[in-house]
User: Fold these one by one.
Assistant:
Number 1:
Amino acid sequence: MIPASIFGRYARALADVVTEKGDEAAIQRDLDTYREIFRSVPALLETFDSPAVQLEAKEKVLAGLMARYPVCATMRNFLQLLLRHHRIRYFAEICDFYTKTVNERKGIAAAQVTVAGPLTEADLSRLRASLVKVTGNRVTLTVGTNPELLAGIVVQIGSTVYDGSVRTQLDEMRRRLASE
């Protein structure tokens, strides 16, 4: 496995080019498309990563893929660069770093929210407003459910976790009672 700093280097370079050219929407669309392609057909990444397959053959496969699923010029160059530098296998990780880099530059904090059951739009608005106050940034929410929480909410922003779940509160009470 290559270090995360390398993912970041490719992601920042792409973000720099996108910022300069102003084609963020096209790049995001292309990243999403190819992320889904590589996720749904893992044999493609295995082929691109295989030392048994010649680079010219890999380039033809990638060219065929881009002919079928067209991309903007910046994305075409980026995919070819990743292929030539043997980094295309890490496409998903580089995409994650790219999104994080772009969000940081825009002052957007990405929050992963886990709840026991679905939230209403009003609940999401209040939560977003609270997180804006805490972070000082605009906030995007990715909401998931986990019935094992029983009730409450767990929010992760970067490496910080705010755990207000009933499950955690019960575990803490159990721990305190056991130590007494």
Note: Residues 107-179 form a domain with the Glutaredoxin fold (CATH 3.40.30).
Number 2:
Amino acid sequence: MAEINSRKNSSEDNAPRPNEKLIRVFDTDQESEALVVHGLLDSSGIQADITALEAPQDILPGVGGTVILVREEDAAEAKRLIEEFKRTPQEYETEEIDVNAGPANER
């Protein structure tokens, strides 16, 4: 019985509270980019809200841009995750290759 109550209390703690302050942590003109960032935050346990700036994205996709809002207490961690996600490690960068050259062992 105590286990059920503790799960209930923890889910109530995560529930949005009326009038709680939300912070903009990301904005983009591409809804698809916002969805990727939203997934990143969600997978890290940060609840986020996607909001269209000027036009409903399901009616006028790509018009006005999209922002992601998080709770004030999650904003610093969300921004850190987004910045970390934006940085591409050196080993993942695309190497330029000469397509006219022969196989690598012949160079």
Note: Residues 1-12 have pLDDT under 50 and may be disordered.
Number 3:
Amino acid sequence: MSELSRDEVLAVLGPRISDSLAAEIIATGITKPELIAAYNRVLSDRKAHGPPLEPGHIARVVEILERLRSQGFFGAAGSRLE
């Protein structure tokens, strides 16, 4: 498994991600496909999430992304545009 890069985090989440936030996400050990899945899970209807995630790196990134979403970071319908 290769380590996720800052550029890959930005490609998935958009250019507004700070270096410290990218580092926090990378430190979880998540892969790019897992990051994409976590991002899509956060943006999808909460009722469609399915079963709760087991504790681990994916669940941690979902928590981080949920926090950003609650702060309006992703904008309408998950848009990453400013």
Note: Residues 6-78 form one domain.
Number 4:
Amino acid sequence: MPSQTDFELLSKVATIYSQQAIADEIKHPREVINRWIKEGARKDWLTYAERVSLEGMLPKPVNHTPEFTFIDLFAGIGGIRYGFEAAGGKCVFTSEYDKYAVKTYQANYHCDHDIQGDIREVTQPPGLTKNQAVAHIDKRIPDHDVLVAGFPCQPFSIAGVSKKNSLGRLHGFECDTQGTLFFDVARIIEVKRPIAIMLENVKNLKSHDRGKTFKVIMKTLDELGYSVVDADHSAPDPKIINGKHFVPQNRERIVIVAFRRDLNVGKDLSLKQISRFFPKQEPKVGDILEQGEVDKKYTLTPKLWEYLKNYANKHKAAGNGFGFGMVKPEDRSTRTLSARYYKDGSEALVYRGVRKRPRRLTPRECARLMGFDRPGESNFKIPVSDTQAYKQFGNSVVVPVFTAVAKLMKPYILEAKAIAKEPKNTKFVGATKSRKAFEPSKKVEKVA
């Protein structure tokens, strides 16, 4: 007997893919798919072959016995999850606010749990006392070994700060939306007490607001009882990892790894050791490019190409470094892909010859540039429009970086798990005695 009815299967697939994509897959007119969905719980209208086709549109569970569990906060399209699953982990909770990112996430990762939208619905339930809020978090978030979070970076990124400044808006921890989400992560950490933490953000997080923002984060983790790996390093800081070692893209991110101090593990771990996982052959742009002709829609229009050239010349004359980035197959890296790539592709334009206009990278090439697909592969599913795909890849992480980080952490995670099972390290449940971890200063308290 099938584990779900035809309607349940069709409905699940329809949350990810368009009706037209489903129609194309099972060779029915789109109108038929629309009618089936509207009719609801009719039984057994799919043939066996159609069920197999629809089931094939959904991701399969990870084919290994999990060695540790983790939760995936601000998950995006699952770049960090990919790495921690590859290291032997099982995801037991996911949060992601963007509905289009959720589609891509569900198209590529098997979820035996619902995806939480706004994490603040879990961490800041209205009308509850402190103790009730703690109980609410403890109930809604399952126990887990590792917390991973790529909390929103726009309040701290160079581009994000510049844009907010130009609009007269607050940024960093003064941003009353995304900027305070780190403290929602801290609330979960305080209640659930995972044995390890891995946080990711833009490189500029460390220097934002003359270093005050980063100091708040480090102080918060310390007060929660966690020791950060490479905490005392300045320059060059091992916590700043450049994706260009794994893919042909210059993309620096800060990676914060921490272990619960009472477990006394990870003291000999350094993110410098990530070099053990560098590919033997240095990546180049040609590795990620499509072979053969690419759809003409990715070639810049004459008007856009003229605009970009004039824009670049204007800033060059003014002594600025702004302009477009042109790449050839033999180049070692592109500029950093951003969420605005869909607008003009200026970060990475593919050279097509002296008398030809350049083109954007295709979404599939972006998937390879971010490491979701290996060179020549097209396995990662992209169920959204090109515009949404560009935004998603531009907001994501370089997958092999976090696969390497997860593999570095794994021996210490397993060691900490073993220690935590000992009677003297029974699991702590409840809030800490002090709320200072959430309120590092009066300035932050107002928005946290």
Note: The domain at 285-395 is CATH 3.90.120.10 (DNA Methylase; Chain A, domain 2).
